[in-house]
Amino acid sequence: MKKVLALCLALCMMLFGVAGFAEGASYTPGTYTAEARGMWGTIPVTVTVSENAIESIEVGENNETVGLRQWPMNIIPQEIIESQSLAVDTVTGATVTSRGIISAVEDCLKQAGADVAALKVAAEKEPAQDVEASADVVIVGGGGAGLAAACSATENGATVIVVEKMGTLGGNSMVSGGIYNAPDPEAQAPLGIEDSPEFFAQQTWEGGDKIANKELVDEMCFNALDGLKWMESMGLEIKPGVGQGTGSLYQRTHYAVLPQGSGYIKAFVETLMTREDLCTIMMDTTAESLIVEDGRVVGVNAVGKDGNAVTLRASKGVVVATGGFAGNVEMRVQYCQGEKWPDLGKSLMTSNMPGVTGDGIRMCEAVGANLIDMDQIQLLQVCNPKNGTTSGHFNAAGVQGYVLINKEGERFIREDGRRDEISKAMIAQTDGIAYLLMSGETIYDPETQTIASGRTVADMVETGDDGWVSGETLEELAANMGVPADALVAAIDEYNAAVENGGPDQFGRTLLNYKFEKGPWYAYPRSPAAHYTMGGVQIDTAARVLSTDGNVIPGLYAAGEVTGGIHGGNRLGGNAIVDFVVFGRIAGNSASTAE
Question: Which of 32, 33, 220, 469 is deepest in the core (most CB within 10 A)?
């Protein structure tokens, strides 16, 4: 087993020393720079070589996904230097970024006069050895729920093995919006907002069409604030105040300082780094089945990256935290396609990471777990029309800071409503696209305000990435958007009139905090994508997995999107992280204290 915790927190440029010499390698000594295309732009690299060795590799500033990029930017240069070769594996889950780094390094070595073809010849590997290991708790999945469970279990002094099939930690949690709902009198009272756990739970249950298990809803909502404070105790930084996240239905949304979900994953990993004697993380290792003995789940059968067998035994319990199945076209068509969502096939993109394909649901089902709410899936309306991800989204605006405009220059839906209702309305628009439009009241400092990935608004407008456009006037913005100016001006005038009159507006929007009057104006296109599956493995409030006959399956626990019964027919925006924090914490505690 390989400890990898120290590899995932490379938060700045990486510089590595020489590990060896490639036989026969020859370079013109010096420092060379090059750049190559990554996922979201170019990746600059600086390589220093001596006469016969690659001395150092430094990766410069880039726009790759915050959090995910640290893995290939740490591992790839390190492996190139250690092997003195370009024949290194890409990092699963960050393949495009990995290839960009390797390509840029190759360019630098060409400049240094290297025999690049020889450097690409891979050394023959020895057959990978089978692995057998044991711990108090085995956790399947290194995303938010799995890492929360690991922190909780090690907090109790339990030994933990986390098995993750990708080459990166964080899963979907890493690329989430980073928003967290919790009633918080300290943050809400200064804004005149009244709230309570009871109201939060009622909104969550009703917002999911009363399909969810109310006991699970209460467990999540009543522990939300304590979960947030737990995260803050581990180093999570939260911005002051609250807003209303997209689809959250109320102003109780907290925003992390670091982009997307990277702040949560960073807090978990930094905590686990202080407990390395208790926690081992195995990357590129795919769990395939649960081990059952005498009716109890006692471990996991997995396969390593090189095809070797990995057998992991758990003396206390196994936690499954592998995420949902929104990225699995076959499963979402099988379970979720119907009257509400008539086409969930290949043409519908997903916001999910590539490793989130419903594996844990199948593993649990194979040992008798009951599956519930499997027909419930959520589309997210703020996704990139080109790739289905949330790239380019300015989530800091909150619903209060934008309106949605179709290609005819008109509003068509209340922006403070449910995600499913907004997504269905957007699909019905021309080309299934709407523009998220903001004024100078929302974007008041484009040089410092950042989108979810950490890039500034000014940079997005300058490059035009993800379709961002701006205009000093509404008319100029309309021209850059390609929509009728008169219709757009009328739409904003009607919105401002509703603000002045106290609302609601003609679409029923009640979140009318301020008028949109000041330029510059900004807009970018969005389209719905498969985002979250509300169905999955049935659990109780202790995160114990229940069988088809309603009994607890001894030794088996689950947390996060792999479970069902918490969000019903529609997950409120900002509740996904609450779910994985609260129930991941519960699962880790339950498993580590089991008899």
Answer: 220
